[in-house]
Each structure stands twice: as C-alpha cells, then as structure tokens.
Amino acid sequence: PCRVAMCVGTCSRIVGPCLLVLGTLSVAANILLLFPGGTSKYLVEGHISKHAKAVPGIWGGGITVSIAACTESFLMCLWSGDKGMELVAPLHPPALPSMLSFPQLALLGAAACFIFSGVGLTNGPLCFYNASEHGHRHGTLWGYPFLDTVSQEPDARTENYLYDRRTWSTCLEPEGIVAWNVVLFSLLLLISAAEMVLASFQILNGCLGCLCGFCDGK
Fold first, then answer.
1. What is the pLDDT of residues 6-50, one digit of tens each?
2. What residues form the membrane-spanning segments (predicted)?
3. Long-range contacts of 150-157 (CB under 8 A, 24+ apart)
4. Distance between CA 13 and CA 29 in Å, rounded?
5. Inter-residue contact 189 to 118 (CB < 8 Å)
6. How many other CB atoms are there within 10 angstroms of residue 170's CB atom?
C-alpha cells in the first residue's frame, strides 16, 4: 500500500505540470488561428472563422485546464507536510471532492476544445473564394467554400478538403489559410486529446489516492 501511495503522490505532481504546459500550448495555437499569416488585418475586418473566434483553445483547453491543474497542484502542496512528509492515512472526506473535481473540470474543458476544434477542422476556413465555381450565382465572396459546396456529398467534400491539397487553392485570401487552419486545428485536437487522457488518468489516480492514502516518500 505504501508503494502504491507513493506512486499516486508522484503521478499527481507530474500530471499537473504536464496539463499546464499543454494548456499554454492550446492558448498559443488558438491565438495563432486569429492571425492568419501573422497579420491582424483579417481579425480587424472580421474575416476569421467562427470556430476560431469561439477560442475553444483559450477558454477550454487553455484557461480551464490550466486553472484546474494549478489549483490541484497547490492543494497537493497543502496536503504535503512541512518537511515533504505526506499524509499516511487515506485522504479525509473533505479532500475527496477537491481531489476529483479539478481533474473533471480539466476533462470538460479539454473535451469542449476537442469538439469545437473538430467542427472547425471539418467545416474548413473562412476565406475569399470564387463562389461561381461552387454553384452560386455570385462571384468572389467571403465564406466557407468547403462547407458551402452543393455539388458534392458531405463525405466526398470532407475527403477532398482534408486529403486532396489540390482543392486548397480554392481559397484566394488569406494566403495559405487552408494549411494554416488544418495545422492549427489539428494541433488543438492533439493537445486536447492528450489533456483528456491526462485528466482521466488523474481522476483514476485521485480515486486510488482516496482509497490508499499517502505515505512518507522514503
């Protein structure tokens, strides 16, 4: 039991910083989505994808996860003794909700980021394109060409957009917006997936800690 408890305490101290790093990366990736090509022109003009403007990587995979990770790490320090000696007995009942609620909060934030990023990746970017080539009467306009396509089935549209780079030239402006959108939303998906795995692991780890307790790290 003592070895198990030592493992629980060590894992708790490792998962928190990992979530904090991932949360920081999530915020950075979402901020980049707001500045295609590194310029603020399109953000000022309002020509940014609605999924990027929803900033799921900031409030979901970023702030929510980071706050949960920092708070849990802080509580772990409080529960530790003054000389680094941890509690020998299992966690007391008042500590149980705190031990489990913060990983759950991180899990919810990461899940929200994952869903929003998946939708943003599937629908494609907002860009300036020739709408007449997609069955519209109008000429060039701002819109979602890979979502507005009416001549293709949804499955074929998604396949062409994500796997056929020849269709990426559909977007005329911002330059390289399709690759920018795909790379950053894919990065957000990977980050949020990793956060969900770590948060789920920490929930199980917290349950184990509540049952086995902590012991002196000798």
1. 455 566 678 888 999 999 999 999 999 999 988 999 999 999 999
2. 14-37, 57-79, 100-121, 177-198
3. none
4. 25
5. yes
6. 18
Q: How far is CA 195 from CA 18, 30, 43, 101, in A?
A: 9, 15, 28, 15
* Alpha carbon distance 56, 26 (integer Å): 9
Provide the residue ranges of all domains of the chain, joining segments of one domain with +.
Answer: 1-125+174-216
- Going from the C-alpha of 60 to that of each of 79, 146, 169, 193, the distances in angstroms are 28, 26, 31, 12
Cβ neighbours around 37 below 10 Å, total: 12
Which tokens in the block code for residue 26?
């999530």
pLDDT of 127: 93
pLDDT at 89 over 50: no
Q: What is the dihedral of CA 85, 7, 195, 62, to 10 degrees?
A: 10
Q: Is 141 helix (H, G, I), strand (E, B) or coil?
A: strand
